[in-house]
Amino acid sequence: xxxxxxxxxxxxxxxxxxxxxxxxxxxxxxxxxxxxxxxxxxxxxxxxxxxxxxxxxxxxxxxxxxxxxxxxxxxxxxxxxxxxxxxxxxxxxxxxxxxxxxxxxxxxxxxxxxxxxxxxxxxxxxxxxxxxxxxxxxxxxxxxxxxxxxxxxxxxxxxxxxxxxxxxxxxxxxxxxxxxxxxxxxxxxxxxxxxxxxxxxxxxxxxxxxxxxx
Length: 214
Ligand code: DX5
Ligand code: ZN
Hints:
Elements (H helix, E strand, L loop, with lengths): L1 E4 L9 H10 L4 E7 L11 H10 L3 E7 L3 H10 L4 E5 L6 H13 L3 E6 L6 H4 L7 E5 L14 H14 L5 E5 L4 H10 L3 E4 L1 H4 L3 H8 L1
Parallel strand pairs: 1-8, 2-3, 3-4, 4-5, 5-6, 6-7, 7-8
This protein binds D-xylitol-5-phosphate (DX5) and zinc ion (ZN).
């Protein structure tokens, strides 16, 4: 299991200490939540913060862009060092635009992910699976850390796993929101490959919390 702590929930009053612990943990990815205050009612980090993280950690930079204009911001954060760019299917107008952006991201040697909100029909993702490296299943409404896991997400993970196996594709399933030891295990059993965890990791002992998700 790949564990991707979300630095949205990092305690910025003890940033140096927590980033050090993160680097010493078994986490493999750093989940970087970008919010523009329009696509979601919250505002977070710009590219300069990602550049700073690039200097502080060797964890893979997994950038989740919750923005109205993913075409513009994908390049902004790839320029800043993103190694995965995951954009929202709801932020573009049609499947063709999603395929175009995924192909552009991949053309820059960056992994392309698509994220889907809890209420969005999963079938929209089916025809995109051949064009992407990762699906990010939102198990909370995007915008804030510390929310409760939506149990219906488990069936969505199972359905995606079935589609990926049927098509014999190599697409990772990442799950994001309300992940702790209990929900993490359920997601793992349902077929998840990557677990994002913010509050569970940064509000507890970082190393122990990460290990409990591996
Ligand atoms: C929410 C973000 C998540 C969030 C997870 O919009 O995409 O990555 O930080 O936080 P927790 O793990 O606290 O639910
Ligand atoms: Zn996220």
